[in-house]
């Protein structure tokens, strides 16, 4: 008999009706009081699972971008230095945590994604659906590590406790438990090779247990590298465990959420608003390397298209003042995202690119970093580095031919200086002098810089992950912002974290106040934007 917990009924099913979805993210019409144990079938459960996938990545049914814009576009994308803002009213590019935006990001996750994840996990556990339970556990790991990578301590183990106060877990506690959750899920996935679940609803792998196993191991590798500087013993053990169980090795393994006209890529919508452009760091790296991906990632500037003068791909400094942003012409003089991210009216597709979750290229660069440490990764750092480039450039969105890929891998090109003829005081030297070609005789740190720089390029436009890795490794070497309006984060530093949101002080005050006193915060500066996260521990 199908069972359903009181907690799940009370907390999660309302969330399903707010935005439950099929593989096309169509709304459910079922009302909360109509979902009972006798009529909740595997199809409806599958819709809940699809809902959890989309909402955890801030993708919403019907094409709404409110969650995505306030969570990623206005924070991580800018802090990763993929883009610079051109909108006069957007202060986050000057290290300002705009409270309404971060409040919205927090509330979206805990009001939209977390309840559905909890419901599916509890329901599949209570009704003895082990494979479905393994899938949602892996997805839970993906969802919660991303939230913790923004704030550090978060609500995790006590979510949905039904109390008026919900305590926080430290980031260390969250990460250590995420590894345990992966252990549980992987054990089940190994026992069900060739099996399937949520067929017709799983947005990434069509329900393939084998694909989910490979993804789970690859996700473990990502998290293992995240903790390398704070707990190298744990990092090595988890990385080697991931590799032993099998990680992504080809582009067919990569994890993408499908996009449709009911659930478009958010950039499909927000690129039409003209609020950001290519960053100066992107110009230095990609144009300097003469990277074949440049014309896919970015569009030629309007100015270049109109008169053929100046560089075709141009990046803008991060951190322009409101006064400077009030000037006109920034959008025309700097590169927008590439056509594949634009809407149909601007040459793009009906739904936009599939949404990146974790790619095989990223995994190869993680393996390269592990090999650089001398860990049992199954190959050398150079082998994985070059394969990462190959996989990135052979993805469907790029489709570079083998000769072009090999020429790039062997290239001695280095990043270029960035100049602004009208504002020479903004000019920048190259961000680095490392070439594309692997420095076999280089230092370990130079090789790490190469690996991390190419990973940053390959995972574009996943600003969420890119910001985390920029904080962890400080590569690619970031440019200073022109201005910082945050006294806790100077213009020449990378934004370390978001502080706790005001809504928590209004509604969960005792818990968030206690979180402020967690040692991993108090030992590093307290609840400040300038306080580094637990895993952000690379020696100076």
Automatic annotation (TrEMBL):
Keywords noted in UniProt: Lipoprotein
InterPro entries: SusD-like (IPR024302), TPR-like_helical_dom_sf (IPR011990)
UniProt keyword annotation of Metal-binding present: no
Pfam family, one: SusD-like
PROSITE patterns: PROKAR_LIPOPROTEIN
SUPFAM superfamilies: TPR-like (SSF48452)
Keyword RNA-binding part of the UniProt annotation: no
Ranges in coiled-coil conformation: none
Domain of life from the UniProt record: Bacteria
Region ranges (Disordered): 521-540
Protein name as annotated: Susd and RagB outer membrane lipoprotein
């Amino acid at each position: 008999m199908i069972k359903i917990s009181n907690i799940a009924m009370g907390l999660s099913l309302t969330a399903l009706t707010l935005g439950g979805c099929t593989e096309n993210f169509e709304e459910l019409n079922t009302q909360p009081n109509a979902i009972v144990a006798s009529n909740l079938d595997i199809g409806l459960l599958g819709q809940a699972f699809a809902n959890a996938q989309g909402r955890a990545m801030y993708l919403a049914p019907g094409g709404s971008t409110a969650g995505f814009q306030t969570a990623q576009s206005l924070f991580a994308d800018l802090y990763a230095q993929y883009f610079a803002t051109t909108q006069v009213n957007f202060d986050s590019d000057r290290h300002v945590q705009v409270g309404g935006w971060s409040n919205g990001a927090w509330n979206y996750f805990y009001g939209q994604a977390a309840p559905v994840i909890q419901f599916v996990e509890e329901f599949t556990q209570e009704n003895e659906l082990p494979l479905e339970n393994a899938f949602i556990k892996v997805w839970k790991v993906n969802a919660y590590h991303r939230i913790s990578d923004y704030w550090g301590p978060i609500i995790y183990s006590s979510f949905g406790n039904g109390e008026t106060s919900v305590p926080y877990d430290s980031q260390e506690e969250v990460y250590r438990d995420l590894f345990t959750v992966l252990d549980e899920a992987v054990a089940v996935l190994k026992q069900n090779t060739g099996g399937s679940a949520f067929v017709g609803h799983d947005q990434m792998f069509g329900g393939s247990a084998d694909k989910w196993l490979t993804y789970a191991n690859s996700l473990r590798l990502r998290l293992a590298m995240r903790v390398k500087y704070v707990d190298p013993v744990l990092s090595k053990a988890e990385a080697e465990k991931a590799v032993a169980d099998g990680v992504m090795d080809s582009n067919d393994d990569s994890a993408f959420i499908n996009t449709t006209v009911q659930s478009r890529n958010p950039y499909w919508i927000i690129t039409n608003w003209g609020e950001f452009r290519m960053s100066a760091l992107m110009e230095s790296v990609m144009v300097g390397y003469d990277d074949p991906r440049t014309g896919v990632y970015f569009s030629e500037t309007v100015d270049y298209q109109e008169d053929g003068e100046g560089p075709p791909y141009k990046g803008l400094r991060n951190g322009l003042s409101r006064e400077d942003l009030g000037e006109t012409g920034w959008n025309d003089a700097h590169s927008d995202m590439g056509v594949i991210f634009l809407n149909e009216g601007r040459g793009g597709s009906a739904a936009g690119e599939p949404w990146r979750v974790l790619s095989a290229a990223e995994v190869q660069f993680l393996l390269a970093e592990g090999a650089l440490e001398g860990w049992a990764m199954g190959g050398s750092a150079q082998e994985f580095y070059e394969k990462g480039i190959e996989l990135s450039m052979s993805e469907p969105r790029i489709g570079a031919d083998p000769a072009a890929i090999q020429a790039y891998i062997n290239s001695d090109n280095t990043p270029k200086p960035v100049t602004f003829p009208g504002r020479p005081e903004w000019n920048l030297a190259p961000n680095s002098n490392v070439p594309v070609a692997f420095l076999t005789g280089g230092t370990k740190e130079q090789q790490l810089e190469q690996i991390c720089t190419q990973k940053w390029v390959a995972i574009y436009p996943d600003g969420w992950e890119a910001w985390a890795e920029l904080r962890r490794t400080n590569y690619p070497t970031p440019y200073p912002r022109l201005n910082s309006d945050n006294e806790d984060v100077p213009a020449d530093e990378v934004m370390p974290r978001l502080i706790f949101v005001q809504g928590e002080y209004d509604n969960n005050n005792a818990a968030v106040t206690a979180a402020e006193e967690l040692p991993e915060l108090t030992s590093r500066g307290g609840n400040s934007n300038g306080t580094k996260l637990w895993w952000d521990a690379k020696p100076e």
